[in-house]
Design a protein that fits this description.
By secondary structure, the chain is mainly α. It has 2 domains: about 170 residues, Helix Hairpins (Orthogonal Bundle); about 130 residues, no CATH class. The chain has 9 helices and no strands.
Length: about 375
């Protein structure tokens, strides 16, 4: 059923086009989402870099504070030691003037110690502030790194999805190209048997203008139909015949009086199935514009239904009724359409065994 398959292929191609469009749209959306995600990733990395830089500066500041703190702690310890030594001196001194001088030095050391202690408090306070800043920076960095981990996980998933979509699109395009190649190369050639039938001999004789009465010469009066004149329409071949004739009539095939009419008789499903398949092959060889025009018509819908019913026929009376009511009209439409086949296809088919089967069916329904 090449013709119907051809129509189905066109519909499939339309569906394939939609599928391709869907894949490309999904791929584009994933790419956009990835671009947005990469922008977020760059922002997060930039913030982390700034935090690391800030933390590095704070850690240097903290080191200086620790060094200063150690220095002040040392000074304060030495002063406390000196104050303790002076206190011992006072206990061992009996001279009033010397004791007064020692007290004076002790007071000076206590004052100096207080200044050192005050400076040490400031340093400690500054150290606490720096430590708090480092703590906050560390917390922010941890949160950013967590966010970055999620971004990178999502990025990996998107890249995997995009890669899979690209493979699907490439496979899809490869399959479409392969199917188009098959369709371009598709040719249905009717096999010509070595032995010609009587119908073929008759057809060839009509085409070559050699059908004559015994003993007559080509072109003689005896070779003409009664009442016809040489050169008249009745004496010409299929090419110069009535343009209103169908495909069968183009070849001058005459009605066989012994052919049983099928219009009101028993339905010959086997013959219909075989001949419809032959006609479907021929329809597939029509020019593309005629195929498109026919496939959009109501005649095509009836033909498609008839074809399906004949191939799936199970004896249902409703099926039989529909076929009988429509088959002659459908066959007539197809017969008129097939006369528009290219000349080489017409000639090849008219010389094939299938032409006899075709003619027999149409004669049975009074067509031709």
């Amino acid at each position: 059923m090449l013709y119907l398959e051809g129509i189905q292929d066109k519909l499939a191609n339309q569906e394939s086009g939609l599928a391709e469009e869907k894949l490309i749209k999904e791929h584009t959306e994933k790419e956009k989402k990835l671009d947005k995600l990469l922008t977020e990733k760059v922002g997060a990395l930039s913030k982390i870099r700034d935090l690391v830089s800030g933390q590095s500066g704070l850690e240097k500041e903290l080191k200086n504070i620790n060094d200063k703190e150690d220095e002040l702690d040392g000074s304060f310890a030495r002063l406390r030691e000196r104050i303790g030594n002076i206190s011992n001196e006072i206990e061992n001194t009996v001279n009033g003037e010397e004791e007064l001088a020692i007290h004076r030095r002790k007071t000076e050391l206590i004052h100096e110690s207080a200044l050192v202690e005050e400076e040490l408090d400031e340093v400690t306070k500054k150290k606490v502030e720096v430590l708090d800043k480092i703590k906050n920076l560390t917390k922010n960095r941890f949160e950013l790194e967590e966010s970055l981990d999620k971004i990178e996980a999502e990025e990996m998933g998107l890249r995997r999805d995009i890669s899979n979509l690209r493979e699907k699109i490439e496979t899809f395009m490869h399959d479409i190209s392969r199917e188009i190649g098959k369709m371009d190369r598709l040719e249905v050639v009717d096999e010509i048997p070595p032995d010609q039938t009587e119908s073929q001999a008759e057809i060839q004789s009509v085409q070559s203008g050699e059908e004559q009465e015994p003993g007559s010469e080509p072109g003689s009066a005896e070779s003409l139909e009664p009442g016809s004149e040489p050169g008249s329409a009745e004496s010409q071949g299929p090419e110069s015949g009535d343009q209103n004739k169908g495909f069968l009539g183009m070849f001058g095939r005459k009605q066989d009086p012994e052919t049983e009419s099928k219009e009101d008789g028993e339905l010959d499903v086997g013959m219909l199935k075989e001949v419809l398949s032959i006609m479907d092959d021929l329809l597939n060889k029509l020019p593309d514009n005629l195929i498109d025009e026919f496939s959009d018509s109501e005649d095509f819908k009836r033909y498609e239904k008839i074809y399906s019913l004949v191939n799936e026929f199970n004896g249902d009376p409703e099926q039989e009724k529909f076929i009988k009511e429509n088959i002659k009209d459908v066959l007539t439409k197809l017969d008129n359409l097939l006369k528009k086949l290219p000349d080489e296809v017409l000639t090849g088919f008219s010389e094939s065994e299938n032409f006899g089967k075709y003619g027999k069916l149409l004669e049975a329904y009074g067509i031709g």
